[in-house]
Amino acid sequence: MASDPEDDPLRYLPMLYRRHPWHGITPGDEAPRKVTAYIEIVPTDTVKYELDKRTGFLKVDRPQQFSNVYPSLYGFIPQTYCGDRIGRFCAERAGRTAIEGDGDPLDICVLCERDITHGDILVPAIPIGGLRMIDGNEADDKIIAVLEGDAVYGDAKEVADLPARLVARLEHYFLTYKQAPGMPRARVEITHVYGREEAYQVIAYSQEDYEASYGRIKAAKEKIASTKGV
């Protein structure tokens, strides 16, 4: 006698447990042209939050010690990873050697007109470019995106469509946010501001890096999701 799908406990997993923001949520069917972004930090935050990779909860990394604040929504693209492919691509584009991925999900800055007052949310984002940031010898790209349907930024198709001062503000933040008064200058640089097509390439490579490093997690998730009713 065939088992009743209603008796399969796997079908209830999505209702019983929160999905891990990095591994349990997809970047979306339209990636890289449109992605789901998980937001960790908003511009009004006076504390730096980041994802606890083991539990999937936000944790306090450190208080913001200086006057600089995030100039946009900030988080990462789920099921991405900055590994070997991201490192090689960064080295190739920057004309460097021995660049590695930073071992984190791919960061994303999402511009929007309205105030969003807290993180730990998902937003639909349209990538339009990025910052090629190198921290020491690690590639630490920042994808620049706009909130889908945003009244002010939503029509931007390329990073060149944004006000130059806004892009400069993003660059300045990431070049200085680790800089403490009286301390040696951090080894952080932005070698390029790149456009939409290159942002697509970076996202695609980060998805390939994720598959290479975490493919088993993704396969297990897909197996569970294929269970009838899940």
Fold and architecture overview:
- The structure is a single chain.
- The chain is of the alpha+beta class and 230 residues long.
- The protein has one domain (16-219): Inorganic Pyrophosphatase.
- Helix content is 25%, strand content 26%.
- The strands form two sheets. It has a five-stranded mixed β-barrel.
- Helix 2 packs antiparallel against helix 4 (196-225).
Overall domain count: 1
Rounded Rg? 19 Å
CATH class reads Alpha Beta
- Determine the N-to-C terminus distance: 22 Å
Instruction: Report the principal-axis shape.
Output: globular
Number of strands: 10
Strand line-up across the major sheet: 1-4-6-9-7
What is the third-level CATH name, the topology?
Inorganic Pyrophosphatase
The helix content is 25-40%
Low-confidence runs: none
> In this structure, how is the largest beta sheet organized?
5 strands, mixed, barrel
**Overall residue-averaged pLDDT value:** 90
* Class by alpha and beta content: alpha+beta
